[in-house]
Each structure stands twice: as structure tokens, then as C-alpha cells.
Write a structure and sequence with these properties.
single chain, 170 residues, mainly alpha, 2 strands
Length: 170
């Protein structure tokens, strides 16, 4: 694989992860711009390493019996991001906070993986749809679910709904 392609994929993953991170940073969430850029970059790098390993161990080039399965790295990215996502989910009394940020980290890892595989359109569309979900669907969700009926009517000490959605910035 050409060095410029590798660098381009890493840069694109970092940029797209940053785009998702800006929205979380603007809402003062625990996983913001830097976390999202690092998740996308790391996912992309792992993916590139697995693609490279498959290329190195291709039939006729690799030692006898050697083989690579790039899907194994991808599955481990998903497992690893689960631990990171669990770290941003907090229980506050009867409320659970940080689910949206954890889900966004999961999507960011997928974007990095897609960039590493060269699936640029999928990565870009995923970022666009995630931003639509994060920004445009927030008021729709609030409209559809009245404050008194949101997930058991739990509220934190500041009066924000305890619905798993991150509170608005103050």
C-alpha cells in the first residue's frame, strides 16, 4: 500500500472523528474532540495494520501455513470501544448519563475502521448521518417525549431529564 494512501486514510479518519467530537465538545461532554479524534485514528491504524498483515501473508508470498483474517482486528476494535464507551456511561441516582456519547464513540470507531479500509463514502455518510442524529433529532426527541414522561420522569439536581441523553450545555 502506498504511503500517501496510508497517510490520507489516517488524516481523513482523524478529521472525521474530530467532526463528531466537536458536537460532543460543544456540549461539554466527557468524551469530546480529542477523544473522538483518537478513537477514529486508532481504529484506522488498527485496520490499516490488519489490511497490511493480510497483504504480507498472501498466498505464495507468506511462509507455508500462515494466514491472516482482517475481520479479527475489526471485531477487537468493537470490543475495545465497548470498554471505552462503558467508561463514559455514568449512573447518577436513578438516572443513566452518557449513553449518547458512548454511542457516538462507537460510531467514531466505525468511521475510523471504514477509513482504514478505504471506504471513504461510507465514512463520510456515516459522519453526516450521525451529526443529523445528534443535532437535528434532539429537538424532535424532546418534542415527542414530554418532560414529565421521559424515561420514568427522572431528573437530576439541575432539573435536566435523566433519560440517557446528555443535558444541554449551560
Amino acid at each position: 500500500m502506498d504511503s500517501f494512501v496510508i497517510i490520507g486514510r489516517l488524516v481523513l479518519a482523524t478529521f472525521l472523528g474530530g467532526v463528531l467530537g466537536v458536537e460532543r465538545e460543544a456540549r461539554s461532554q466527557s468524551a469530546g474532540l480529542r477523544t473522538h479524534t483518537l478513537v477514529a485514528l486508532g481504529s484506522c491504524c488498527f485496520t490499516l495494520a490488519s489490511v497490511y498483515t493480510e497483504w504480507v501473508l498472501q498466498p505464495g508470498v507468506s511462509p507455508n501455513g500462515s494466514q491472516a483474517d482482517i475481520s479479527r482486528i475489526a471485531s477487537q476494535i468493537v470490543v475495545g470501544i465497548g470498554f471505552l464507551g462503558a467508561g463514559v456511561i455514568l449512573r447518577h441516582g436513578g438516572a443513566v448519563k452518557g449513553l449518547t456519547t458512548a454511542a457516538n464513540l462507537w460510531v467514531t470507531a466505525a468511521v475510523g475502521l471504514a477509513c482504514g479500509l478505504g471506504m471513504y463514502v461510507a465514512a463520510g455518510v456515516t459522519v453526516g448521518l450521525a451529526l443529523l442524529s445528534l443535532v437535528l433529532l434532539r429537538p424532535v426527541a424532546r418534542f415527542l417525549t414530554p418532560l414529565s414522561g421521559r424515561h420514568g420522569s427522572q431528573h437530576d439536581e439541575e432539573g435536566d431529564p435523566a433519560d440517557g441523553e446528555d443535558p444541554p450545555p449551560k
